[in-house]
Amino acid sequence: MAETTQTDERIKEISPLRRALIRPELGGIVGTFAVFTLFALFAFDSGMFNSQGVMNWSIVSAQFMIIAVGACLLMISGEFDLSVGSMIGFAGMMIAVFGVVLAWPMWIAIIITFVICCALGALNGWIVVRTGLPSFIVTLAFLFILRGFTIYIPQTIERKTIIGGIRDAAEGDWLAPIFGGKIGQPVFQWLGDMGIIGVFERGSRAGQPVVDGIPMLIIWAIILIIFGHILLTRTRFGNWIFAAGGDAEAARNSGVPVNKVKVLMFMFTAFCATVFAVCQVMEFGSAGADRGLLKEFEAIIAVVIGGALLTGGYGSVIGAALGALIFGVVQQGLFFAGVESSLFRVFLGVILLFAVILNTYIRRIITGER
Amino acid sequence: MADPIIQMKDIEKHFGSVIALAGVSVDVFAGECHCLLGDNGAGKSTFIKTMSGVHKPTAGEIIFEGKPLDFADPRDAMAAGIATVHQHLSMIPLMSVSRNFFMGNEPVKKIGPIDFFDHDYANRVTMEEMRKMGINLRGPDQAVGTLSGGERQTVAIARAVHFGAKVLILDEPTSALGVRQTANVLATIDKVRKQGIAVVFITHNVRHAMAVGDRFTVLNRGQTLGTAERGDITPEELQDMMAGGQEMVELEGSLGGTV
């Protein structure tokens, strides 16, 4: 897109490598490639790459992706949300309370839960922009507040911390399948008939494919990634997200509504957490008080692996999605490869450290600091 | 001569018991570079903040294009055509030049029901405007962080001009720059002035002021010591007025006239 002008002899030609380096997605692309190569070499026969295996790590990755998209846009706008995990638990519990305990129609329960959670996200954001406190502290407070309510509410009204029966309550509902359903069954049946993917050998489902459709969770992940990517790179609002995180004061001087942008990003993060929660309770059929534990950190790690700067103003949704993919593939891949699962945490710590160092280096290249 | 584009009449500004401005009057004409000189604490910043709508004057009036003005906030002033390029630039190092150039004023292109950021237009205009100012970018996607301080000032000035500034207030644009970069910024000021824009150039460096200024107003302790035309005043006189006369003469004596 750069029309060439007279060249300035003081500007050194940048090598294509260096040019590629300053793309935020680079780490994610290289990492994804490395991870797939590694598992293809060492765990190819473990079942990781047959239809169930692929579906297994795709679902786990899609879960990470959903919360990573929200965390990514929020981080680029210069803030964190540590209450994502608690929000997931809280949202799931709200669905159970409204849909099962109060026995409201499931679609009403889902919509009200979305409204409440987005409002809580807005409250988070409002406190951050009004007080000027670090979002780290404000959302840490919400991590505890929401988790506390998530345990307190079911204990008080049901005397237990897990509320089941959500699947029955969602039976025949029009909105619930958008989160808990599957699509593409005929295609998978056809693939099974053609012998391309595995089918059940015997039992009542003999002849049906083992993987019988794409869960809506994955569709949500894809939609959110496309939405987030286009919003960030192709709209004026995306420019405001970068500006708000790059230098809030400078952005304000140029007429960018920084506070509005940040509050909206907190709301979007809460929205993503709620999507995650609704998909999860529809799949499990129950809501538990401990759901979503540590998810906020997993989301942040995926975003950082994807090349975003912790200080804001720089990052990519595609990168964050690849970070989530690496995350999911490695977590499930180590299981398939028969590696002790606690080593996954070691891997996570190492790759996080590596990603942060790489990102810092890249920032220096972009801003020309020496 | 035509009427001034902006007139500041007997502007007073008090902050509690502190009198920051005690009746300052300045006229600025389109197409001139009006230098506002003064030492630290002379009231330069307060004065330009009053002009750009950040502060409301305690007394006095501002007449812009023949009409009395009452800005509620800086956005009003910006909309009317009074743009300020601050010492602390409104540029974001991690973002590309074209994203910075259009920050807050992004061009949009409708595709279906959705407004998209028109990158092609933004890139083209940015390259064009920067070329007019004499800066050849590697590309519109070059990050502002890779530009020099002088080039960043130029981007900020070009941006203000592109978005229709009639009065361009430059708050110490050269104070942190090297010799070469200062020369570039001064050349930019000259280009802007020739487009018929009124430039208010704030500085405490007499040599920078003499290089491009058409008229000079010196502020000292919240008061103006009058406006001088180019050619009616020597750099030494300006220097003395800024420093408040007496002590400076003594100081210069001991420093051998090097200041």
Mean pLDDT figure of chain A: 89
Contiguous uncertain segments of 5+ residues of chain A: 1-10
> Helical segment tally of chain B?
9
User: Largest beta sheet of chain A: what is the strand line-up?
Assistant: 1-4
CATH superfamily heading of the largest domain in chain B: P-loop containing nucleotide triphosphate hydrolases
What overall geometry of chain B do the principal axes of the alpha carbons give?
Answer: globular
Strands across the major sheet of chain B, in which order? 6-9-10-3-11-12
Report the sheet with the most strands of chain B, covering strand number, pairing sense and barrel closure: 6 strands, mixed
Number of strands of chain A: 4
Largest β-sheet summary of chain A: 2 strands, antiparallel
Q: What's the CATH class label of the largest domain in chain B? A: Alpha Beta
Properties at a glance:
heterodimer, A: 370 residues, mainly alpha, two-stranded antiparallel ribbon, two-stranded antiparallel sheet, 4 strands, 69% helix, globular, disordered N terminus, B: 259 residues, alpha/beta, Rossmann fold, 2 domains, six-stranded mixed β-sheet, four-stranded antiparallel β-sheet, 9 helices, 12 strands
Outline the structure in words.
By secondary structure, chain A is mainly α. Chain A has one domain (49-198, 208-367). Chain A has helices at 16-21, 26-42, 51-76, 84-101, 106-131, 135-158, 166-170, 177-180, 185-193, 216-234, 236-246, 248-253, 258-284, 295-305, 317-336, 343-367; strands at 162-163, 182-183, 214-215, 287-288. The radius of gyration of chain A is 22 Å and the shape is globular. The model of chain A is unreliable at 1-10 (pLDDT under 50). In chain B, strands 6-9-10-3-11-12 form a six-stranded mixed β-sheet, with helices on both faces. In chain B, strands 2-1-4-5 form a four-stranded antiparallel β-sheet, with helices on one face. In chain B, strands 7-8 form a two-stranded antiparallel sheet. At the A-B interface, helix 11, helix 12 and helix 16 of A face strand 8 and helix 4 of B.
